[in-house]
Amino acid sequence: MRNIKLTLSYDGSDFSGWQTQPRFRTVQETVEAAIHALTGERVNANASGRTDTGVHAVGQVANFYTQSQHSTEVLVRALNAHLPDDVVVRQAADMPEAFDANRDARRKLYRYVIHDGPVPDPFLRHYCHQSRHPLDAAVMSAAAKPHLSLNRVGEWIWIDVEADGFLYNMVRAIAGTLIDVGRGYRSASQIAEILEAEDRRQAGPTAPAQGLFLMRVTY
Amino acid sequence: MRNIKLTLSYDGSDFSGWQTQPRFRTVQETVEAAIHALTGERVNANASGRTDTGVHAVGQVANFYTQSQHSTEVLVRALNAHLPDDVVVRQAADMPEAFDANRDARRKLYRYVIHDGPVPDPFLRHYCHQSRHPLDAAVMSAAAKPHLSLNRVGEWIWIDVEADGFLYNMVRAIAGTLIDVGRGYRSASQIAEILEAEDRRQAGPTAPAQGLFLMRVTY
Asked: Do A119 and B11 touch (CB under 8 A)?
């Protein structure tokens, strides 16, 4: 059996997250259906981790076992021909049989994107959180600095968090708390408390899913 | 009466174009409804020109007459609060009573965006035409050069056309013809024939609406 590693991008807007659930449209089920259409095989697409409803991925990774003899180039092209246009296979690679996209993931990089401007951007409305209040990115950056990276270019702010594991909704809790810091509702020191306590009860409101991207997984 | 000039951006994906039509969701009707919700007035939002179903605008311009006493800053904020998130007022300005956004438009800049890469981009799928065949942008650029501008950066190609008037679907016909030139189906000289004849029957297939943006209107 071959063990294929896929690198996937998807627009999470119309998916109920990665993991298969009866009666919901999920990325896992969609990818497995494309593999089935191509190979006739019922496989398990084993991702680095689930992503929640509405969360996007630039570089999700999943592996599956197959007896297909297609080259990896053909696999990319043929799977994309079977996939709907909100999920795309960027790369396919043959891996040793023991490779497990979930268990072997060493680090994941998440990015949270905020638009902070007086006028929303209609083209990026599904791919960011539109702040309703002006944000002080310098204060947010100072609060973030020991733990994670925050950048601002023009009206765009993004928070990059890379770690070996993530508690449920942790990145969105961090983003929501930093937004509170940026509008003057919380002090910068609370970020450290939340991260050190790993206690979401102390965090600000969870920022919306549509601003969150799984950027890459490192093995 | 005040005469207000609005600069508008909209994602055309879910609109049946600019112009009001019974039983269709249009940008004009949506903007007029927001003005009504704010001012209580039934106005005519008079655009520089209609845009077709699915066509986007970065800088559409429209004017309307009102007795509202709101400052232009308040108009922008309040209209955006009443508008759905796929249409946005970027600017509002008081104009002389004679200003007519349609009649006084001197030039319009349209941009047609093509993605030419082996793997589609799921985040920009509504905002470009995904070419199914590799395109030779140098040949396209040579064909375009005397008439209009064509640029390529990485997998992205865009065609800018600025003119004082546009025949129906002209920009999409030009884009469709240039795509045919880029994949070797047509000779470069046919672009000149189409533009000079202003005859769409000689043009290639009309490129899809989702790649077209009305960028700006000059008065």
From this structure: no
